[in-house]
Automatic annotation (TrEMBL):
InterPro entries: Flavin_trans-like, Flavoprotein, Fum_hydII, Fumarase/histidase_N, Fumarase_C_C, Fumarate_lyase_CS, Fumarate_lyase_fam, Fumarate_lyase_N. The keyword Lyase applies. Catalyzes the reversible stereospecific interconversion of fumarate to L-malate. In mitochondrion, catalyzes the hydration of fumarate to L-malate in the tricarboxylic acid (TCA) cycle to facilitate a transition step in the production of energy in the form of NADH. In cytoplasm and nucleus, involved in DNA repair in response to DNA damage: following DNA double-strand breaks (DSBs), translocates from the cytosol to the nucleus and promotes DNA repair by catalyzing the dehydration of L-malate to fumarate. It comes from Rasamsonia emersonii (strain ATCC 16479 / CBS 393.64 / IMI 116815). This is fumarate hydratase.
Length: 902
């Protein structure tokens, strides 16, 4: 099988590696495969864990045998653990199956992902074929040369899904390991009888997401695309200098010609819009309009209606019929449906009506010879009729068939129409413009930037995704910011309803915002930190997600901006300039209170326990890395506790400034477009939703233009990092050895320390924490620079400042928790080693200073060091004092505290 995998990597198809782990939802795997079987350019290989195979043993028609999966036309192989590990032994030179599968796959989808496999993945285990593929995944894209995603659809009972461990594990996949995409489970009554969340996402939705991620489209879309591309080539190739616009529109889905490799612009329009453009003079008499929509599909044949409008006049209607032809064509103007005869020329009254799913657009400035013309008024009436009757046509047909269109206007930009097809969409059709899947995206009335149909974000977010492609794992806007946006928008809606916002709209916004605050919609916030310095794109992302979710709640159409508009309603009384600073402070306070301070206080208490445990163990002190006078190990650790006590105070002292929020300052701090009292009321509502106090900033100009509170908080974390670095380094050095180092502390044996030196115990937790501290210090430098960049009325380094602060909070919180759990609790003192070093130290001579004087004490120490004797032997040799007096005065236990006054 590995040999065929090597060859299959260059077969020109899209490659889906579909896996299932042990969950009842495995019975949906055949449905997923069946739904994808009509894609001839898709190759599927399946991995089943041993537990997953128990659900596909031929129990019923719903649960067929594993071998039956191979009957689907595009399933090329089904693997289990024996495919790699048995029964034949592996031989040198043979290929490794899990590596070859990783290289072969364009996308790995694990549906279902059981709780057990989720835990294995997060823990980095690789004990079966599936987890080996996941563990060997190229997470950076530097090995296989391409970034590839892993989609996981968790499926487990409600108690498992709601378990805190599951939340932590999912957070690792979503926030830390950005090569994963988690498809959230649905709420329903599970087969086990539980009612609640945990059921795998509906399999039909998983299919749509797979088609979108692999840009598969579907057979109907391919046919529509062929018609559109035929028209494109026929009308455009004779006019190479043409600015091409492509778009689509539908009730639920839409598409456009998207070729991001060329300098294309995109606009969307309805027939009414197009007619208005003519009437307003935005389009001249040289422009033509084509409307293409699918009427029916019979036995693989496609029938399309095309209406051409020129200068606002309906001049020709076509009906095309044919079968998809996937043979390679060298002529870009060739026909791509074979055959496509013009069956008849409709009159105006006979022109077929489009369904709601028709796509509209304007084509190249060319009118076919012999086309008839009609009056402008009758043509306008026809176009308006097409729009007004779309609902009736859609209802009558009960169809949401896709359609496509083209738009081209004046010859202003050189464009080579001989572009290659995406091989995953139209195999063999190599020299036409690329069309996205017609069932995987939607568009809006002002843009044709395509938005995935299953996402709540809108045009502004989609545009930002294209404009800021600076995306590495960990670069997405942090989840605490998303949560804070949900809190802010919900609070603002509550207050805005007091100032005139429709209560119906306001309540829908509050419900949607609550879902955002719960991070239920985290997958709908794809933007990275590297955007405009005001955070405007992320604010619009929040507005669009909440708007579309609210529209959905009210039964409206996503993307319509009706009845909930992202700017007019969700962003009412607000600007990005005051909204983003507000969520910065909300997120910072919640993370400091919820994560940092609990971890810091817990570590402090754990170290205090060691103070008590070690209080009677006397050891040698060290200054300048040289021997010094004694102290107890407990005293040494008490210094660490005091450091953390001071750091707790410093961090808490930053909170009063972070509790002051900018909301109500709007654009520059004046409060334009708000009402008196809005700022105070929104602060009160935020406090209720956040569960902690916030107040309106007394000076909004400072709140927008400067972020000294963020720099101050980062500075406190920087100081904490310095303290933790010192503590970790001390413990690291005190645990060095075991025989040739200090060896006073015994570190927990969490893992083998070396792959070549047996028995080695490395201070891994110390090293990890000190690296965390170094990163926090670096974050503070960037945050400080960000704080300096508040030119005039607005700071424009907001996203990177809050990203660094939250990153520091998170890694310090996790780092301290790990240090406490995996090191401090298990830390022990080697009392024998401590006593040996104590009595070998020459610095005990210090206690003789008051008895024999500094000069004689110095001679005793130097003589002992030179001759390798003990202090006592040296003192006896120099007759500095008697043996009885030496034993009387040289007592370490008397050297660890001040003397009582005589």
């Amino acid at each position: 099988m590995p040999d065929s995998l090597t060859a299959a990597r260059t077969d020109g198809k899209a490659h889906l590696l579909l896996a299932a782990s042990g969950s009842v939802a495995t019975i949906k795997l055949p449905d997923i495969v069946r739904a994808l079987s009509h894609h001839p350019n898709l190759s599927i290989r399946i991995i089943l864990t041993s537990s997953a195979k128990r659900f596909l043993a031929g129990q019923s028609q719903e649960q067929p045998t594993v071998s039956s999966l191979l009957e689907f036309p595009n399933v090329d192989a089904v693997y289990d653990d024996d495919s790699e590990w048995g029964p034949e032994p592996w031989r040198r030179g043979a290929e490794i199956l899990h590596i070859e599968l990783r290289r072969w796959a364009d996308l790995l989808v694990i549906a279902p992902l059981s709780a057990n496999t989720l835990a294995k993945v997060v823990a980095g285990m690789a004990d079966n074929l599936l987890t080996s593929v996941v563990r060997a995944w190229d997470t950076t894209g530097k090995i296989d040369g391409v970034h590839k995603k892993i989609l996981v659809a968790p499926a487990m009972n409600t108690a498992m899904w709601q378990h805190p461990v599951t939340g932590q594990q999912v957070r690792v996949l979503q926030e830390d390991w950005r090569w994963f995409e988690v498809l959230p489970p649905q709420e329903k009554t599970l087969m086990c009888g539980d009612t609640g969340s945990g059921a795998m996402m509906e399999w039909t939705q998983i299919v749509r997401i797979i088609e979108e991620r692999l840009e598969l489209g579907n057979a109907e879309a391919n046919g529509v695309a062929a018609v559109a591309n035929n028209l494109f080539c026929q009308l455009s190739c004779d006019s190479p200098k043409t600015n091409i616009f492509g778009f689509g529109y539908s009730d639920t889905v839409a598409t456009g010609i998207l070729d991001h490799s060329s300098d294309l612009d995109y606009k969307a329009a309805s027939p009414i819009d197009i007619l208005a453009w003519f009437e307003l003079g935005l389009l001249s008499s040289s422009h033509s309009c084509f409307c293409i929509w699918q009427r029916e599909s019979v036995a693989g044949a496609f029938c399309y209606n095309t209406v051409q409008v020129s200068s606002g006049l309906l001049v020709r209607a076509y009906c095309h019929f044919g079968y998809p032809d996937t043979r390679r064509r060298e002529d870009p103007a060739a026909t791509f449906l074979s055959p496509i005869p013009q069956l008849r020329l409709f009159s105006l009254s006979e022109a077929p009506l489009p369904s709601e799913s028709c796509a509209r657009g304007i084509a190249s400035p060319r009118t076919p010879a012999g086309s008839s013309t009609m009056s402008a008024s009758s043509s306008r009436a026809a176009v308006r009729s097409m729009a007004s009757l779309s609902h009736a046509a859609s209802a009558a047909s009960k169809s949401s068939s896709p359609a496509a269109a083209l738009l081209a206007v004046s010859p202003t930009l050189s464009l080579n129409c001989r572009r290659s097809f995406n091989r995953r969409q139209f195999q063999g059709l190599s020299q036409v413009a690329r069309l996205q899947s017609l069932q995987s995206s939607r568009t809006f009335a002002t843009t044709a930037k395509m938005v995935p149909a299953d996402k709540y974000w809108g045009a502004q977010t989609q545009r930002s995704l294209g404009n800021f492609k600076i995306n590495q794992p960990g670069d997405r806007m942090p989840a605490p910011i998303v949560k804070a946006f949900g809190i802010l928008k919900g609070a603002a809606a509550t207050v805005n309803m007091r100032y005139g916002l429709d209560p119906k709209i306001g309540e829908a916004i509050k419900q949607a915002a609550a879902e955002v605050a719960s991070l239920k919609l985290i997958d709908h916030f794809p933007l990275v930190v590297w955007q405009t310095g005001s955070g405007t794109q992320s604010n619009m992302n929040a507005n669009e997600v909440i708007s579309n979710r609210a529209i959905e709640i009210l039964g409206g159409k996503m993307g319509s901006k009706k009845p909930v508009h992202p700017n007019d309603h969700v962003n009412m009384s607000a600007s990005s300039n005051d909204s983003f600073p507000t969520v910065m402070h909300i997120a910072a306070v919640l993370e400091i209170e919820g994560s940092l301070l609990p971890s810091l206080k817990s570590l402090r208490n754990a170290l205090q326990e060691k103070v008590v445990q070690f209080e009677k163990i006397i050891k040698i002190g060290r200054t300048h890395l040289q021997d010094a006078t004694p102290l107890t190990l407990g005293q040494e650790f008490s210094g660490y506790v005091a450091q953390l006590d001071r750091n707790i105070e410093r961090v808490q002292n930053t909170l009063p400034h972070l509790r002051l929020i900018a909301q109500g300052g709007t654009a520059v701090g004046t409060g334009l477009n708000t009402f008196k009292g809005f700022d105070e009321q929104v602060a009160e509502e935020i406090s209720k939703l956040a569960g902690t106090e916030f107040k309106t900033a007394p000076n909004k100009f400072e709140a927008l233009a400067a972020h000294d509170a963020i720099v101050e908080a980062s500075g406190a974390l920087n100081t904490l990092a310095g303290s933790l670095f010192k503590i970790a380094q001390d413990i690291r050095y005190l645990g060095s050895g075991p025989r040739c180092g200090l060896g006073e502390l015994l570190l927990p044996e969490n893992e083998p320390g070396s792959s070549i030196m047996p028995g080695k115990v490395n201070p891994t937790q110390c090293e990890s924490l000190t690296m965390v501290c170094a990163q926090v210090m670096g974050n503070h430098v960037a945050t400080t620079i960000g704080g300096m960049n508040g030119q005039f009325e607005l700071n424009v380094f907001k996203p990177v400042m809050i990203r660094n602060l939250l990153h520091s909070i998170r890694i310090l919180s996790d780092g301290m928790a790990s240090f406490e759990k995996n090191l401090v609790h298990g830390l022990q003192a080697d009392e024998k080693r401590i006593s040996s070093l104590l009595h070998e130290s020459l610095m005990l001579v210090t206690c003789l200073n008051p008895v024999i004087g500094y000069d004689m004490a110095s001679k005793v120490a130097k003589n002992a060091h030179k001759k390798g004797t003990t202090l006592k032997e040296s003192a006896m040799e120099l007759k500095a004092l008697s043996e009885e007096d030496f034993d009387k005065y040289v007592r370490p236990e008397l050297m660890i505290s001040p003397k009582e006054k005589k």
